[in-house]
Amino acid sequence: MSLNFDNARLKNEYLMPHHDEWRTQLRRFFEKEIIPYADDWDETGLIPDDLWPKSAEVGILGLDYPEEFGGTSEGIDIWHKNILNEELARIAVGGIGASLMVHNIALPPIINFGTQEIQKIVIPPVLSGKKRISLAITEPSGGSDVANLSTTATLIDDHYVINGSKTYITGGMNADWFTAAVRTGGEGASGISTILIPSNLDGIVRTALDRKQGWWCSDTATIYFENVRVPKDYLIGEENQGFKVIMVNFNAERMGMSAAMEAASRVCLEDAIIWAQERKTFGKRLADHQVIRHKFAEMKQRINATQSYLNNVSRRIQLGDENAADIALLKVQSSQTMEFCAREAMQILGGVGYIRGNRVERIYREVRVNAIGGGSEEIMRDLAARQYGV
After folding, report:
1. What residues of the chain score a pLDDT lower than 70?
2. 249 and 189 both lie in a single domain
3. How many whole angstroms separate alpha carbon 203 and alpha carbon 209?
4. Which CATH number does the domain housing residue 383 bear?
5. Which domain holds residue 310?
6. What pLDDT sits at residue 25?
7. Per-position DSSP letters for 132-195, written without gaps between them
8. Rounded Cα distance, 268 and 264, in Å
9. What is the three-class DSSP state of 355?
10. Closest to 221 in 3D by CA, of 261, 267, 171
11. Which of 105, 126, 310, 346 is such that its CA lies 20 to 30 A from the CA of 133?
């Protein structure tokens, strides 16, 4: 039996029949509603608005969110979330998953630290696909250095007046709200607050960032704030305690990205094998050349290692033993595996891989955004070393 996306997945003893049913449900939905149109959406940079409510109906948007807000939490575990990220990665248009699921990094601060009033206003319409929310942290002057952001929020009477800008904001052009990090105090992390900003307020200007290497349909934007007045009740958590609010997000984001990158590596393996078994060179199949078989073996070797690491960290999270250092290094492992497999698959496909419209070409373009987004490889290694007491 030839290797493909599914049988290249290592056996996972923690997956139960209900996990398989979830995968089947997702794949059926994606193959009907997304995959036939994914390349066109990527090329045009636009995702139809009705994808959000459709995704909500099958439980994608509300996965692992409280029932009281329209989510599904009973019986949901880390494996359900990993499977969702795998199946999104199988589409091989990263901008779709990035834009569709951006609420997973924008809503947790509201879930964990927001007032009940804010939660009732924001969470139900986002989980139903009627409204959208984005996370606004990165600024033109820096990304990973959150503690030194410069967008200010000055309390005047009963409003915060916000001035500054955010950039590389996924889903930013069509978001109804921004979960934003702002400076309310002095320098460093101790002066950061988190606040909910409705996108329809006066003084907000959005500019599309549509000339990107990858994630063409991720709806990425630069957001400008000029004397934007936000009610002080929209503060998320306590003033000058926003750094903690933001940090809660990162482990889950990195786990999701790691699961997706591992799956993207299997997409590359699958498509390269299909091509190598069909393509003939020098009188025999490409797959019959030893040098090509060795490429497949090394791709699978690295995929196996990454899967094992992913499953180990996921199991520890399930048991309540989450470790930020291991999650950081898992993200590095996953991005390097994705990069290697994308490169080798491109080498095997040759000219056909260079032409737009195939999954390997799209994944190859999206290696860097995965290696940098959510914390670059360099930042991740340094974080891990410090966590380990080095």
Report:
1. 1, 143-144
2. no
3. 19
4. 1.20.140.10
5. 244-387
6. 98
7. -EEEE--BTTBSS-GGG---EEEEETTEEEEEEEEEEETTTTT-SEEEEEEE-SSSSGGGEEEE
8. 6
9. coil
10. 171
11. 310
Query: What angle is formed at CA 85 by the lines to CA 379 and CA 220, rounded to 5 degrees?
Result: 65
Q: Tell me, what's the pLDDT at 249? A: 84
pLDDT score for 210 = 87
- What tokens were used for 267? 């997409």
Give the total number of structural domains in the chain: 3
b/e 79-101 (16+ beta carbons within 10 angstroms → b): bbbbbbbbbbbbbbbbbbbbbbb
Distance between CA 216 and CA 166 in Å, rounded? Answer: 19
Could you tell me which of 179, 229, 180 has the C-alpha nearest to residue 201?
Answer: 229
Asked if the structure places residue 1 within a domain, the reply is no
334 assigned to some structural domain: yes
Question: If residue 197 lies in a helix (H) or strand (E), which one and from where to where?
Answer: strand 192-198
pLDDT in tens, 208-230: 998 899 999 999 999 999 999 99
CA distance 137 to 181: 5
Report the sign of the C-alpha dihedral through residues 33, 34, 38, 42, in that order.
positive
- pTM (predicted TM-score): 0.95
Picking from 240, 261, 276, the residue at the C-terminal end of a domain is 240
Q: Which pLDDT score, from 0 to 100, does residue 344 have?
A: 98
What local confidence, expressed as pLDDT, does residue 1 receive? Answer: 61
